[in-house]
Design brief:
mainly alpha, 16 helices, globular, membrane, transmembrane helix, Chromate_transpt, cell membrane, Chromate efflux pump, ChrA
Length: about 400
């Protein structure tokens, strides 16, 4: 997208800064934050309808370029797209304001629901609804991973070696999600670096036969926070979620589960399923799930801290790189990295579905999971309706006296 402040030509979007006030950005991005049920497809549709179709603030090509650019970044792509569109209109002020208005409504909703579910002794129907919706989460994870496969497979190219590597990255990612827990992120990065190395070895020879250094990704510096501190450990978990999750929102699930359930024991397996379900049925990105983990670890302060840390990289990436996204998209090293990290992330999402299914503790949840799989994968219907219906079945199970806790 062009930098903010550029004068508009006839037929082009209105000049940012001149005709789009910060108040308008706040109102419109808040509306999307409140009504954005259904995950990234719904968010992208609402942003396109506002910025391209109804207001003409950006062109269709600029919007499509924005989608492509933000999909190159780790973290929640639809959140980054909302920040980028607001940056296009009013620079860094618009980006900060628009991004905050997009995120905050869902954050408030998910924290309220976290308090309801994790504090005190909720009524049996409430726990039944959570258990029913949680039972469907594994099917949601499979759907999320399956939707990413076609584009990633095309990126591997027509050649057999590239497709064999793609399958290898997918399998390694799935095994890492099942076996390695918090070290999964290193596998994702390693897959990207391996593909970058393969690509570089193929292209680093110049025409005169001399060798030159292959373009590479900047080194990733990871600051390890004090594990003895709950807030430090929580911040580290949230940072991994926000800064190192390639392949869409659902890759955060194995990352979070390893820390929140297996390592720190902030949540039980059942409660983690509740958290993921809440992240799906509330407006805004699925990354909001990290706020439930934060609440379980350290109350409301932990919930807010986890959300701030998880979303901060998205703001940094967009504010620092918005002017350079076209060059970023064209960089061979970046494309190669994503060709490796992408299938590994898809594998991690699919592997997480196995862990989520194994977390089910009641027999009645199994047919709920099966029904959700038919709804989502067979009939290709929506996630929100699947979770709400599964929650309704959970309420019926509770009223029938079946175990829900």
């Amino acid at each position: 997208m062009p930098p903010p402040g550029q004068a508009a030509m006839p037929g082009e979007p209105a000049a940012p800064g001149a005709e789009v006030s910060l108040g308008t950005i706040a109102a419109q991005w808040l509306r999307i934050g409140i009504t954005g049920f259904g995950g990234p497809p719904a968010h992208i549709s609402l942003l396109r309808e506002l910025c391209v179709t109804r207001r003409g603030w950006v062109s269709e090509q600029e919007f499509e370029d924005g989608i492509a650019a933000t999909n190159l970044l780790p973290g929640p792509a639809s959140t980054q797209l909302s920040i980028l569109c607001a940056w296009r209109l009013r620079g860094w002020r618009g980006a900060l304001l628009g991004g905050a208005c997009f995120i905050v409504p869902g954050l408030i909703a998910i924290l309220v629901l976290a308090v309801l579910l994790l504090s005190g002794s909720p009524a049996a129907p409430v726990l039944g609804a959570a258990s029913g919706a949680g039972a469907a989460v594994a099917a949601v994870a499979v759907q999320a991973g399956a939707r990413l496969i076609p584009a990633s497979w095309r990126r591997a190219g027509p050649g057999r070696p590239g497709r064999c590597r793609w399958i290898g990255y997918l399998v390694v990612g799935a095994l890492a999600a099942l076996l390695l827990g918090p070290w999964l992120v290193l596998v994702l990065v390693a897959a990207g670096l391996v593909e970058t190395g393969v690509h570089g070895a193929r292209h680093r020879t110049t025409r005169d036969g001399r060798r030159r250094p292959a373009p590479g990704l900047p080194p990733i510096a990871l600051a390890t926070l004090a594990s003895s501190s709950v807030l430090g450990a929580l911040s580290w978990t949230a940072l991994k979620v926000g800064a190192l999750s390639y392949g869409g929102g659902f890759v955060i699930i194995p990352l979070m589960r390893a820390d929140a359930v297996d390592h720190h024991h902030w949540l039980t397996g059942d409660q983690f399923l509740y958290a993921v379900a809440l992240g799906q049925i509330t407006p805004g990105p699925v990354v909001q799930t990290v706020a439930v983990v934060g609440y379980a670890a350290a109350g409301l302060l932990g919930g807010v801290l986890a959300a701030v840390v998880a979303f901060a990289p998205s703001f940094v990436f967009v504010l620092a790189g918005a002017r350079h996204f076209d060059r970023l998209r064209a960089a061979p090293a970046v494309q190669a990295f994503l060709s490796g990290a992408g299938p590994a992330a898809i594998g991690a999402i699919l592997g997480s579905a196995v862990s989520l299914a194994l977390s089910l503790t009641h027999l009645w949840q199994v047919p709920v999971l099966a029904a959700a799989a038919v709804w989502l994968l067979g009939l290709r219907r929506g996630v929100v309706t699947a979770l709400l219906a599964a929650g309704g079945l959970g309420v019926l199970a509770a009223l029938a006296g079946m175990p829900v806790q």
